[in-house]
Amino acid sequence: MAVVGGLFAVAGLPAYAYSPSETTPNAQFAGTVGAQSVSVAADAITSTAARDGFTATTPEELEQQKAAALAESIASTYSYRDPGPRQAGDDYPFAGQGEGLSPLNYYMGECVDFVAWRLNRDAGYSSAPYKWVWSNLTPGGGSAGSWQSAWEAHGWPVSSTPVAGAVAVTGYDHVAYVKEVLGDGSVLLEEYNYSGYHQYGQRIVPASSVISFLYPPG
Question: What's residue 189's pLDDT?
Fold first, then answer.
C-alpha cells in the first residue's frame, strides 16, 4: 500500500516538480546497468540528405501554362483571310459626315466605328447590310473600354500575340486596327480619333505595349 501511495504521489506532481535526484521506488536497482555509448561514423556526421530535385507545380502556375499554350495555339493556327487587295491608307466611308451614329451604330469618327468598319471590310461587307454592328459586336457598351469584355463574353479569341486584322486594345479607352505585324515584333496600327479629333492616323508601337489583341470575330 505504501508503494502504491508513493506512485500516486509522484504522478500527482506537476511536470516541472520532478527532479532526477529524487528517490524513486526503483532506486534499489540504480547502478546495476552500465552506461552505454554510441559510435557514429565520421562520414555520417558530414553528410547531408540529398534531394531528388522534384518541385511541385502550383495550380496558379498550371493555369498560366495552359493560358500561354492556348495563346500560342491560336496564333499558330489563325489565318488572316483578306477578301481582296487592301486599300492603302484611310478608307473609312463615314468620315466628315457629322457626329451622329453611323450605319454600324457607333458614333462616326470615333475609334470604335473605324475599327468596326475594318472588321466588316475584312469579312467582305463593305456596304450595307453590314455583318458586324453594335448589337452583335459589343452590345454591352459602345466605348472602347468594353470591347475586350465583349469578346470574352462571345468566346472570341483574345491574345497577347498580334496578328494582322486584329483589334488592338491600347488603353485610355481606345482601340485600333492592326494593319501589319513587323519583323521586329512591333505592330503597325491604323486608327481614328487618336492623333487628332476624328482624324485618321498610323503609328508603330511595340506589341508588348498593347493590352490585348482581339482576333476578328466569327
Answer: 96
